[in-house]
Amino acid sequence: MVPTTNRLAANGHAPAKFWQNATTYFNRVFDELQLDNNWRSLLATPKRILTVSCPIRLDDGRIQTFTGYRVQHNNALGPFKGGIRYDLAVDQNEVMALAMLQTWKNALVGLPYGGAKGGVVCDPKTLSLAEKERLTRRYTSEVMPIIGPEKDIPAPDAGTDSQVMAWLLDTYSMMVGHQELAVVTGKPVSLGGSVGREEATGRGVMYVLARFLSTVHKSISDVTVAVQGFGNVGYHAARLIAERGARIVAISDRFGGIYNDQGIDIEAAGRWIRETGKLSGFSDGDEITNEELLTCDCDVLVPAAMENTVTEDFAPHIKAKLIVEAANGPTTPEADRILADNGVTILPDILANAGGVTVSYFEWVQGLDNYFWDKPRVDSELQKIMERAFEQVDTIANERDCDYRTAAYGLGIGRVAEALRLKGLFP
Ligand code: GLU
Fold first, then answer.
1. What is the pLDDT of residue 4?
2. Average per-residue pLDDT for the chain
3. Are 108 and 415 a contacting pair, CB within 8 Å?
4. What is the rounded average pLDDT of the residues 356-374?
5. Cβ partners under 8 Å of residue 312, min gap 6
6. Which residues lie below 8 Å from residue 184, measured CB to CB, with a gap of 6+?
7. I need a labelling partner for 366 at 20 to 30 A (CA). Which of 39, 165, 202, 251 fits?
8. Signed CA dihedral, 124, 332, 12, 256: sign only
9. 427 alpha carbon to ligand 1 midpoint, in Å?
10. CA 386, CA 398: separation in Å to the nearest integer?
11. CA-nearest residue, atom 5 of ligand 1
């Protein structure tokens, strides 16, 4: 079995596997939907890969050099857009895969963006705040030539947050000589960030889940849910789903999880993790491993951790009949096949977790306009976009008699291919 508790030890080759998975899904959809073969290699290839080295001075006076990446996958539909990840397992293959998924995601929900992703190989938990600031400022200055409000707009991803985005904003603004709000999203609200951005990915997961359940004449209060991963996405998804009446029977972080068939108090678990740094010791249930969480008794499984967690080892044992992919790339293509054979429905990543980049888009628009929306407007416009995307994917899945992943990827890839066809090639 592949343990998910220690990502590095478990997945020595995971990033390479992740890029392979993203390409496998891409080719599978390309073949199934018989898209125009002329565009295959162009669509499958990142437009630009920048590797940077970021030397910083540590608090103890030593100098350490960190490796960073920015991969710009495709910009046929608009400026590049996508998050920045701080994690020890970041490598070029992982960032390439994430950038490709971001391209399909942005196209699928109809945002005027291409797809990109960035990453720095570091352990954000062991860096001091001051070290993290120096690293962020150096990384920003190294990728400066290729980012900008009309070029490429970064945002948070795993291991980064609104504080990191504030440093990025400041570094970029200092270098261009004026405040440039629209260069980055996911900023603190007091610095031109959008209200609702922090919870947006989790909120989008909840909207897509509710809209899917309505197609089978159910509502959120009818289901039990297990959530793997209790970072920003997992926490807010669990909280908002619980608020609408579902029982959250299992949650986990990277060290392990808890199970309680009566339902876990998510707000209390959130407070516990903020105070102690991990779930372990939270007494509202029985301790389980991350592996046990994946295969526990529940109606809906929400993988909200990292890529490659739902593998062929676990897929045959998964009891949930619905998987909502809140993480990027959690299900391997091998597991995807097994789950399809077992009649498990999957709401794929690029649909289910698109709420974050959607509110990032709202933030970018607000920054360009210098006019800021209130929370009800952000939430209702997010709901509209998430439900529209689900409905378009559902229609294709019904018409073509295919699964939701094929329909969602097909729609996203098809829109990018159409933009390329209309623009033609330069020169
Ligand atoms: N990193 C997030 C994602 O995976 C958000 C990207 C953004 O807001 O630009 O979609």
1. 38
2. 95
3. yes
4. 98
5. 332, 334, 335, 338
6. 153, 154, 155, 165, 168, 169, 172
7. 202
8. positive
9. 32
10. 18
11. 357
Domains 1-43+198-353+403-427 and 46-190 in one fold = yes
Q: How far apart are CA 111 and CA 381, in angstroms?
A: 13
d(CA 130, CA 11): 30
**Per-residue pLDDT reduced to its tens digit, 252-299:** 999 999 999 999 999 999 999 999 999 999 988 999 999 999 999 999
CA of 61 to the centre of ligand 1 (A): 34
- The tens digit of pLDDT for each residue in 379-424 reads 999 999 999 999 999 999 999 999 999 999 999 999 999 999 999 9
Burial class (CB in 10 A: 0-12, 13-18, 19+), 49: middle
The CA 1 to ligand 1 mean position distance, Å, reads 30
Domain boundary assignment for the chain = 1-43+198-353+403-427, 46-190
Residue nearest to atom 10 of ligand 1 (CA): 357
Residue percentage of the chain with pLDDT more than 70: 97
Residues 6+ apart with CB under 8 A from 328: 98, 101, 307, 349, 353
Q: Is the pTM of this model over 0.85?
A: yes
- Positions marked active-site: 117
**CATH class, range 1-43+198-353+403-427:** alpha beta
Q: Which fold has domain 46-190?
A: Rossmann fold (3.40.50)
